[in-house]
Amino acid sequence: MSAAYAGYQAPAVTVSSSLPKRAGAAVLIVPVVSSGDDGAEQATAKVLAGPSLPAEAVGQIESALQALGAKGGAEQVTRVVVPALPVASVLAVGLGKPRDEYPADLVRRAAGAAARALNGTEKVLTTLSELDVSAAVEGLILGSYRFTAFRSDKTAPKDSGLREIVALSTDAKSAKQAAQRAADIGAAVATARDLVNTPPSHLFPAEFASRAKALGEAVGLTVEILDEKALEKGGYGGIIGVGKGSSRPPRLVRLTHKGAKRKGKRVALVGKGITFDTGGISIKPAANMHHMTSDMGGAAAVIATVVLAAKQKLPIDVIATVPMAENMPSSTAQRPGDVLTQYGGITVEVLNTDAEGRLILADAIVRAGEDDPDYLIETSTLTGAQTVALGARTPGVMGSDEFRDRVADLSQAVGENAWAMPLPEELKDDLKSTVADLANVSGSRFAGMLVAGTYLREFVPEGVQWAHIDIAGPAYNTSGPWGYTGKGGTGVPTRTMFAVLEDIAANG
Ligand code: BES
Ligand code: MN
Ligand code: ZN
Q1: Of 163, 13, 31, 137, residue with least CA distance to 90
Q2: Whose Cα sits closest to atom 18 in ligand 1?
Q3: Which residues are known to be catalytic?
């Protein structure tokens, strides 16, 4: 299975400037707004009619929506039958109140909500693309995402069934490019979701590494895998220390995209790949421990991003360094109080084996620094404190002031909504150890997200602009579906990191 592992197979996307004469069983997804300023009671759904919808069809859609009491609220979906159109049915999706401009993420979420409401439809057409092609296509792909690898014939749904998306746009030429880019982005995010959703029984470090290799080689990346012997020999004390409690040994995967022309920039990506986090000897409580299947969400997003960078032929170098380990308690596990030597020589007293992410990441950051990058982006499901501070949907970004803010701004622009957080100098004192250079946890309960960022900062080489994105909550949706995000792996922050890479490629 892993040798041929090809990632998520997204529906095919095409662009058309007009509705076809006949579209059989296809469904047409149409945006509507909530019109009438007399409050929600009086509001009626009005079609945001693009050039491809005949007036007769608009009238039929609106009267059907009125009869059903649909108001066009954001993400509200209503299915209607429209005799004037060549499709089986129309799925109207709300964008809320009318505006001059519709923000990309509003369109993306509406597309996602519409896609989630489909039930076995193989082909959709949409006029959401007349508002924003990229957002419409990304939203449809991500909203229709299902993880079905472990469903037998007994349970449904096996698959959303969506195979084909036709994005309507009068400017078919530029729309075609945007649609293809969006389809690639959607497939990358979905691949990251697949990796997160694959259970820890089936995704352990060696398997994760071989999937990363298959994905990377398929797009021409150079892939290097260090196994446990190479890690031991190379002095990767953090990865070895965390991985040694498991019968399934750790790995370090390196994926290189060489796209830079003369003077092109080089970006290092690092992602936390704990395939399961029990906490180790500092074991976690049983309640919700199964969520720790998501503890490789940073690694999944980093792998998806470097593969996407190669696919999109970005004219920069991107080198992903991905440490992978399983954090287990056993007679071979590291103990609280053990001292290990991180790659590069800094010694660490492991006061809590559940603060394992920073141990594998520190090794990886030092290794990534040896490639002399201009920028370094690291992402990880690092601290429960991230969720306490920012909630389940808002990643925290720390790092060099300017680059941190740039990453947060771009994350806001793509709808992943990361927020800049500080690394106050005084927190470093909390990581003092009585026996080693550093302790891996602070003695205080406060600012856990920032303390973890402070730990990582010790390993970033001087002069490298860096950002750490804590996605403990945002990587994995444990509540209900919303917008284009279903339950389980979300693929965050793949789109943020790709936006940063595109921005660096364009502006340095
Ligand atoms: N993987 C966890 C962080 C996490 C918590 C991710 C909840 C997703 C949801 C991480 O390895 C961890 O256990 N962190 C500890 C750090 C503490 C021991 C300083 C935490 O947050 O409790
Ligand atoms: Mn942990
Ligand atoms: Zn962890």
Answers
A1: 31
A2: 355
A3: 284, 358
